[in-house]
Structure formats: structure tokens, C-alpha cells
Amino acid sequence: MVSNEDASAAIGELIKTQSAEVRQTHASIPLNIDEAFACGEADLKGKVVVVTGAGSGFGRGFSLKAGQYGAKVVLSDLRKESVQKVADEIVSKGGKSDHYCLQRDQVGGPSQDRHARDTYGHVDIVVANAGIAEPPTARFLDFRTENGEPTKPALPTIDVNLIGLMYTVKLAFFHLRENPAKDGKSIVLLGSMASFMGIPGAPAYGATKHAVLGLMRSLYFDARVYGIRINTVHPFFVKTNIFGLIPTLLLTGIPLPTVDDVVAAMTAAACKTSSNGSAFVVDFKGILEIPFSASASEENGGYYAIFAQRAQGALSLGKYVFDIVAAFAGVLSGRRPLQ
């Protein structure tokens, strides 16, 4: 039988190996925590920021930091007491905040962004942070049967981490598109180390976090068309409220990033104006920005880069044609004069 010490050592080596591989990514950029926070200090004042899963962990940390930098922060969470405490803390320090408590079937629903728009008039930044670990009661490889047949897998992790996230992102595009500002609009998605590697015993969680990276890289093209920046943040193991007992025991003595490290990466992802389509990795060595160009580099023979350029051009042309048609439709209906 493997001891906790042996398991911890094995996991420690795995983390170091994976970190080294990620940090060798083409064109990656190290970013220190002070530089990351400086982006927020310069950009967040007066911005309307929506944060999901804001009652604890990364969401709480980022919300407090955004409030400190002068943002108007709209918090959503399933736990009313937790999100109320965060809102009260922001206000007690001179910031502006409102909160919206969701029912479980409202996660990713239209109410949270609409609440922000109705309260402050528009939305500038959406941070899709809400997520759960893979519950031990919903194991994917559960071989129990009903009437001799395997049972349908329980997929709460998919529902929250992927389906809920996709609802949130679509609504973010809807409201950010209506914001007339030419810049400063952004979306941040919370991924994980599991966006790059597998986690034993958590296939649903790993699938959702791989999907986060794929979703961002696919929506990057649309985001550029609408003047929106979209980035992801990928923490390696960090002790938060979804951290279970077994990971805690197995990771004892292994150097880990802190919640503040992740909050700094979230701040850069939201506010660093030169970053679009980037994946911000956070591990025990600090923050590493992997730009979109790394996924479509000339090292791949140039094919992906050419495809990316053509896809961007097609989407830009499509929006241009749509805008012209919409403008003429408005003129013909008498709703707007021809400029």
C-alpha cells in the first residue's frame, strides 16, 4: 500500500514536471504579482464588474481587490450570507457593491448581468469564476446498476462548470456588446491546471476545465470583432473551499501558489490591455501568460496561423455586413436617419 508520504512525493514530482512543460510553451511571458495588480489599479476605477462565485475563494479575493481599486462590483453566488459579507466588506472600505443571490437552477442565468445593468447602467467586465469540484457522490466510473443496467452518470460538475459557464459567457457577450465604450470590456474565465493535464479520479472536472480553454480560444475571434478581450486563468492546486481532505493530505509539504497569486492573475486577465486570448497559468513559480499566438504559431507549420487569420477576417466581414443591413433596415422602418 502506498503511504501518504510516497503519494505526496509522486504528486510533487508530477506538479513540477507539468509546470516545467507548461513554462516551455512558445512565446510565454512571466508576470510578477506587482505588475499584475498594477494593471487593475490603472484600469478598474469606475468599471462595472460582475463576478460569479463571489462568496469565497478566488471570486471573493478578486471582488475585494476590484472594490479596492474603485470598481462597482456586482456579486453573485448561491450562498446569500457569504456574498452579503463580501459586499459589506467592500462597502465598509469605501467601495461600491451590490449582490445577487442565485438559486441553483439560475446559475449562469440572465438575472445576474441584467441586475448589474439595471443597477449601474452597463457592464464592463464579467468574471466567470463559479465552479465546483467533482463530488464523491457523483463519481463518473460508478458501476452500480439498476435492473441489471448501468446507471446514467450524475454530472453536476458539467452542469455548473461548463453549462453554467457557457450561459454566463453568452450573456456577457450580449451585455458587453451593448456597452458603447470602445475599449475596457473584458471576460475572464476560470480554468485550472486540469485545462492542461488530467486529474486522476476527476474526469468530469478535467473535461470541464479543458473545455474552458477551448471555449476561450474559439470565442477569441468573435471577441475581437466586438471589441471585447477574453482570457482564462489556470491555477494549479490552491487551498480553497473546494479543496477536499484527500488533496490536502497528499499535497502536504508541496509548494503551492496562494489565493493572492490567483487574484493577481485574474486582475491581469481582466485589465491588461495588451492581452487577448491569453491563458494565465498560476503555479508555485508565479504567473505565466501564454498568449493566443502560442496556439497558432509558425511552429505548427503555419497552418493554424493562416486559418486563424482567415477566420478572423470572415467574422469581421460578417459583422460589417450585418451592421450595414441593420442600419438600412432602421432607415427603411423610419427608426433612424441615414447618416
Automatic annotation (TrEMBL):
One of its GO terms (cellular component) is cytoplasm. Keywords: Oxidoreductase. Pfam families: adh_short. Gene3D superfamilies: NAD(P)-binding Rossmann-like Domain. InterPro entries: NAD(P)-bd_dom_sf, SDR_fam. One of its GO terms (molecular function) is oxidoreductase activity, acting on the CH-OH group of donors, NAD or NADP as acceptor. Belongs to the short-chain dehydrogenases/reductases (SDR) family. This is Short-chain dehydrogenase/reductase SDR family protein. The lineage of its organism: Eukaryota, Fungi, Dikarya, Basidiomycota, Pucciniomycotina.
